[in-house]
From TrEMBL, chain A:
Intracellular or extracellular location(s): Cell membrane
SUPFAM superfamilies named in the record: P-loop containing nucleoside triphosphate hydrolases
Name of the protein in its database record: Xylose ABC transporter ATP-binding protein XylG
Membrane topology, record value: Peripheral membrane protein
The organism's place on the tree of life at top rank: Bacteria
Protein's UniProt keywords contain NADP: no
Keywords of this entry: ATP-binding, Cell membrane, Membrane, Nucleotide-binding, Repeat, Sugar transport, Translocase, Transport
Coiled coil: none
From TrEMBL, chain B:
Protein name in UniProt: Xylose transport system permease protein XylH
Molecular function GO terms recorded: transmembrane transporter activity
InterPro entries for this protein: ABC_transp_permease
One CC-aspect GO term: plasma membrane
Record's function text: Part of the binding-protein-dependent transport system for D-xylose. Probably responsible for the translocation of the substrate across the membrane.
Keyword Disulfide bond tagged: no
Localization: Cell membrane
Domain of life from the UniProt record: Bacteria
This protein's UniProt keywords: Cell inner membrane, Cell membrane, Membrane, Sugar transport, Transmembrane, Transmembrane helix, Transport
Length: 263, 441
């Protein structure tokens, strides 16, 4: 019952007739003989949320790190807007407007929110000096939108709560006008209220036409937030399904048994 | 009765402590900075009183000793500012003492054996060419270390431990153990001494510029905060900060100007310039020594670098979380090379000061300096766990180390005792620091 009410609130179906925003074709990567990702293909359309599911070690994070530039794939191709993309490091990914919110949040704990938000992309003033005041002002602006209760602009982020740290990581991805957003378990460390906040944000970004890869363990969140779900097992893609066409049990079956619905 | 008094004391104590707390919050003074200044004051006063009580003369708090202290601190202090960056990024550099030796002998050979033959003995360009070559050698050695650490993935501890031996050996091979002297006269001015100081008027000019700088920083900071509508410090707090800064600077000027040239130098100078020396002697102030001004300039430059540039921000980010820095698109390997190259450059500069002060270059110059430099950085609050450290702290740390050393010499401790004290202080300071950090969380 609650499931249907959730799906009812979902925005209009995604238009998948045009060029995909992201196409991962036949991606493989191995670590010391273990095939972490084994010939996986995925795509993502503008305004779409694609959930990535699977057990720990199924290869979800590894696959997505090829897109974010943290890992280099052994074989396969990535296409952004139909054009072949060369992503060798995180800087390349950023040039393609790919932003990533890592599960570990990837924050420098000793720096404040503004320094983290602008890390690697500092605003500089005359003489090439970093303009901390302006970065803090910008941070206050975006935090006012994402997390109005956020006050600790002067403290190093190690002094922040899990939710506050999360909002810094999200602000970093959102601030720079990402077109492709990768979220690795964005709600894992959050309470119910903050989880709701992230869910609303995802809806909002989706409406703006961003494509989002969402790595998620909670089937409930997947059913609620995603348009499609791709399930991985032992480095291989089990399958990609329309969330509206399947039940929780179908997806669980894919995760646990590695079988597509109906197989 | 007792109870009431203790109760009143408690009542009285809480607003009292909160007043200090309020003061610190309003002025935004780092409590750690206060602690270090307190420790330094304790050392100075302690040695002075000890001398006054047991030796009949407190030699520590005299212009002469403080002036010498400032000159002796310069070499270690310059390197300590670079060591801060190295340690912040979770590395270490054990080779700075040996690098200093190599730079010194290279500069010695260049200015004593090579350049006089090429451009003539006493050529006014000799000092600067030698200094630049020395700093270039330091930079290249540092970059080489950084390259092996970053791209060869050999831990900095090992690379620089190897460097400690290798470069001391190289220094010996260059000189064959001989002392290279005398160095160029202009070059020697960079090491201090009566002629290597800027005199009374010059010191006042530097001091007043320093005061103007402090006031400008406060005013500019306030203006920026206001333009973004950030909370401002109360005006009285700004006033207090400005006053403290200016008083310290003016105090330093008064001290260095109160230290006159020795009689022999005055006579020499008077003779050379045809000045009549009056009966009471001629009072010519030393003023700030050139190496001290170099240290101040390096301190300011390094502070700006660490706090106001992308480079510095990346240094801190790498120290806080190397993976996050990498994921944020920072080229952490190239950063490592640059940081060690900078450490080498500063070692080269420090070598200029150290060899100029000595007036000669020997292959043993800088022996054990690495330990003093690391100790200065660590006593100054640089965390070996990475991510935390300040330039002013390292310079203060260098002052603490040098004050201990000088003080013990003045009261007649032998070198064995000095080693024991310096080593113990280092461990104790880090222990205090650990407690401080634990309570901070």
């Amino acid at each position: 019952m609650s499931e249907t009410s959730m799906t009812m609130t979902k925005s209009a179906p995604v238009d998948r007739t045009g060029t995909p925003l992201v196409e991962l074709r036949d991606i493989s990567i191995a670590f010391g003989g273990i095939k972490a990702v084994d010939h996986v293909s995925l795509d993502l359309y503008p305004g779409e949320v694609v959930g990535l599911l699977g057990h720990n070690g199924a290869g979800k994070s590894t696959l997505i790190k090829c897109l974010s530039g943290a890992y280099q794939m052994d074989a396969g191709e990535i296409f952004i807007n139909g054009e072949k993309a060369e992503i060798r490091n995180p800087r390349d990914a950023r040039d393609y407007n790919i932003e990533t919110i890592y599960q570990t949040l990837a924050l420098a704990d000793n720096l404040d929110a503004a320094s983290n938000l602008f890390l690697g992309r500092e605003i500089t003033g005359p003489g090439g000096f970093v303009d901390d005041a302006r970065m803090e002002a910008e941070t206050r602006k975006i935090m006012g939108r994402l997390n109005p209760n956020f006050r600790k602009f002067k403290d190093p982020v190690m002094a922040l709560s899990g939710g506050q740290r999360q909002s810094v990581a999200i602000a970093r991805a959102v601030y720079f006008n990402a077109r492709i957003l990768i979220m690795d378990e964005p709600t894992a460390a959050l309470g119910p209220h903050e989880t709701q906040m992230v869910a609303e944000l995802i809806e909002e970004l989706k409406a703006q036409g961003l494509g989002i890869f969402l790595i998620e363990h909670d089937i409930h969140n997947v059913m609620r937030l995603c348009d499609r779900a791709s399930v991985m097992k032992n480095g291989q893609l089990v399958g990609t399904v329309n969330v509206d066409d399947v039940t929780d049990e179908d997806i669980l079956g894919m995760i646990i048994l590695g079988k597509r619905p109906g197989e | 009765m007792t109870q009431t008094s203790s109760a009143t004391r408690q009542d009285g104590a809480s607003p009292h402590t909160s007043a200090i707390g309020r003061f610190l919050r309003a002025t935004e003074i780092d409590t750690r900075l206060l602690g270090m200044i307190g420790a330094l004051a304790l050392i100075w006063i302690g040695f002075h009183l000890y001398g006054a009580t047991f030796k009949g003369f407190g030699a520590f708090l005299t212009p002469r000793n403080l002036w010498n202290l400032s000159v002796q601190t310069a070499s270690i202090g310059i390197m300590a500012t670079g060591m801060v960056l190295v340690i912040i990024t979770r590395h270490i550099d054990l080779s700075v003492g040996s690098m200093l030796g190599v730079c010194a002998v290279v500069m010695g050979v260049v200015q004593v054996q090579v350049l006089p033959g090429l451009i003539g003995f006493g050529n006014p360009a000799i000092w600067i060419i030698a200094a630049i070559i020395g700093m270039a050698v330091g930079t290249m050695i540092g970059a080489f270390h950084g390259f092996i650490i970053a791209y060869g993935k050999v831990p900095a501890f090992i690379v620089t431990l190897g460097g400690l031996l290798v470069w001391r050996g190289v220094a010996y091979l260059i000189t064959r153990g001989e002392t290279i002297a005398p160095l160029d006269e202009t070059f020697k001015l960079l090491g201090g001494g009566p002629y290597g100081a800027i005199g009374e008027t010059g010191s006042w000019i530097v001091g007043l510029l320093g005061c103007a700088g402090v006031l400008w920083l406060l005013w500019n900071g306030r203006k920026r905060r206001r333009s973004y509508e950030f909370p401002l410090r109360p005006l009285w707090a700004e006033g207090v900060l400005g006053t403290i800064g200016c008083v310290l600077i003016i105090g330093a000027v008064l001290v260095v100007n109160a230290y006159p040239w020795p009689k022999g130098i005055v006579r020499q100078y008077a003779k050379a310039n045809n000045i009549e020396v009056p009966d009471g002697g001629l009072f010519i102030s030393h003023g700030f020594a050139i190496p001290v001004l170099i240290l101040v300039a390096v301190g300011i430059a390094m502070t700006v670098l660490l706090n106001r540039t992308r480079f510095g921000r990346y240094v801190l980010a790498i120290g806080g979380n190397p993976d996050a820095a990498e994921l944020a698109g920072i080229n952490t390997r190239l950063m490592t090379v640059k940081i060690f190259a900078l450490m080498g450059l500063l070692t080269g500069l420090s070598s200029v000061v150290a060899s100029a002060r000595l007036g000669s270059a020997t292959n043993s110059l800088g022996t054990l300096d690495e330990l003093y430099v690391i100790a200065a950085a660590v006593i100054g609050g640089t965390s070996l766990a990475g991510g935390v450290g300040t330039i002013y702290g390292a310079i203060l740390g260098a002052f603490v180390m040098q004050s201990l050393q000088t003080g013990m010499v003045l009261i007649g401790f032998d070198s064995a005792m000095q080693q024991i004290v310096v080593g113990s202080v280092l461990v104790f300071a880090v222990f205090i620091d650990t407690i401080y950090r634990r309570n901070l969380k």
